[in-house]
UniProtKB/TrEMBL annotation:
It comes from Hymenobacter segetis. Residues 47-362 form the Glucose/Sorbosone dehydrogenase domain. Residues 395-464 form the Secretion system C-terminal sorting domain. It holds the Pfam family Por_Secre_tail. It comes from the Bacteria. Keywords: Signal. Residues 1-22 form the signal peptide. This is PQQ-dependent sugar dehydrogenase. NCBIfam families: Por_Secre_tail. Gene3D superfamilies: TolB, C-terminal domain.
Length: 465
């Protein structure tokens, strides 16, 4: 029996579908429309999970606030530590925070993290790039891309997001220096935009400045949709937590505006200062954290929605978007009972992974906290395991430069272009059998083009030069 168990674990470790592996015990279930979603624990006994990223190796990459970076096997739950960063300062809400992987990880195995550290007795924040070795299982060669940002024990931000154009966004909190959020000379209370080498993009809103947006209090979620739209979650004071649509150069109001421009003084400030109002607000506050986009057939009721991990109110919230992405028509809460939820990511198989944050000093940790929780539709059968279908398509030219043509067998369906991390960067719904892919915003590299239609699903590689 022991040898059989080891053999099964070896199969699971290859990343094969979980139908070949023992499923973790269900902790609870809930309904999303007619779909039953099962919650189970993937990994336990962790400490203040801050970030979860689905990696190109089909592992989950994780940061814990104390300074540890690990890879987690999504089939077995095995945690494989890579590095504990020595100069991380964990105090209050500070510590090791956001992380993102280079979109061309196979050729540029870089891992970007942001964390707090102590410099001359003061708390600071910096963005650092590490190099990953798959053979050694290590992260080495730290390179500071941006440092000496003012920090405090609260309001540090900081999510990282690499956009489809190959630039990096980094959110920063106001570090309890509220006026700095409105100062374009300060890096606090901002969403910053950098090139992946740390330099400043030439087309940033202010020439020579890393500033992308300003007037933020404590933004802790960032996501870009395949259509290019960017959204952020942000903590308010005792009122007006926010979901914002991020637009280059815009002012988001803090501290002069709390939430909507619905007070006389706020309305005047908004008019005079190009303030972008949030799409939705919460009063009393809920403490919104990690934010992702769900567009997978495994859980149809969540398709085309934002999913928000919530700290104070201990829940997962679905935020639907209108066709233009300018309003949130509905907010639906799910999945309570596991305490503070901070990190969230989605696998290419449509499973949602959530990291709890009950050991952050503000929760009531259970004996097994903190945990990575898996949310999945166990009745869903992926297209790849269904009987062979007649769906096939062609891409030409391939390699391509600024555009490519896709020839489909039948009209309709959906085309999704993803990077090698499995993250959608572009999508289109063809009306006929021929579709044009606009590749102008994509960096050179290898991508995956997935076609979904009545006949099934198929995927092809596309090289962008």
């Amino acid at each position: 029996m022991k040898s059989l168990r080891n053999a099964l674990l070896a199969v699971c470790a290859t990343g094969l579908p979980l139908v070949a592996c023992a499923q973790a015990p269900a902790l609870t279930t809930f309904s999303v429309g007619t779909t039953t979603v099962t919650v189970s624990a993937l990994a336990s006994n962790l400490n203040t999970i801050w970030e979860l990223v689905w990696g190109p190796d089909n592992f989950i990459w994780m940061t814990e606030r104390g300074g540890r970076i690990s890879r987690v096997n999504p089939s077995t739950g095995q945690v494989l530590p890579l590095l504990t960063i020595a100069d991380v300062t964990e105090t209050g809400e500070s510590g090791l925070l956001g992380m993102v992987l280079h979109p061309q990880f196979a050729t540029s195995p870089y891992v970007f993290v942001v964390y707090n550290y102590t410099d001359a007795g003061g708390l600071k924040e910096k963005l650092v790039r590490y190099t990953y070795s798959a053979t050694a299982g290590t992260l080495t060669a730290p390179l500071v891309l941006l440092g000496s940002i003012d920090a405090a024990t609260t309001h540090s931000g900081s999510r990282l997001l690499i956009l489809a154009d190959g630039t990096l966004l980094m959110s920063t909190g106001d570090a309890q220096q509220q006026s700095q959020a409105q100062s374009t000379a300060s890096l606090n209370g901002k969403i910053l935009r950098l090139n992946l080498d740390g330099t400043t993009p030439a087309n940033n809103p202010i020439a020579g400045s890393r500033l992308y947006t300003f007037g933020h209090r404590n933004p802790q979620g960032l996501v870009q949709l395949p259509n290019g739209r960017i959204y952020s979650s942000e903590h308010g004071p005792n009122n007006d937590d926010e979901i914002n649509k991020i637009e280059a150069g815009r002012n988001y109001g803090w501290p002069n505006v709390e939430g909507l421009c619905d007070q006389l003084g706020e309305a005047n400030f908004c008019t005079a200062n190009n303030v972008r109002e949030p799409l939705t607000v919460w009063t009393p506050t809920i403490a919104p954290a990690g934010l992702t986009y769900y567009d997978h057939p495994a859980i149809p009721g969540w398709r085309g929605s934002l999913l928000l991990a919530v700290l104070k109110d201990h829940k997962l919230t679905q935020l639907t978007l209108d066709a233009a992405g300018l309003t949130i028509p509905t907010r639906t809460d799910f999945f309570t009972g596991f305490g503070r939820l901070r990190a969230i990511c989605v696998s290419p198989a449509g499973k949602v992974y959530i990291g709890t944050s009950n050991r952050d000093g503000r929760g009531n940790p259970a004996a097994t906290d903190d945990r990575i929780l898996t949310l999945e539709n166990r009745a869903y059968v992926p297209t790849a395991t269904r009987p062979a279908t007649g769906l096939s398509f062609d891409i030409f030219p391939n390699p391509a430069h600024r555009q490519a043509t896709v020839q489909l067998p039948t009209p309709g369906g959906r085309l999704t272009v993803s990077d090698l991390l499995g993250r959608p960067v572009y999508s289109v719904q063809p009306t006929g059998t021929t579709a044009m892919l606009d590749l102008a915003a994509l960096r050179p590299g290898t991508y995956l083009v997935q076609a979904d239609g009545a006949a099934g699903r198929s995927t092809r590689k596309l090289v962008v030069e």
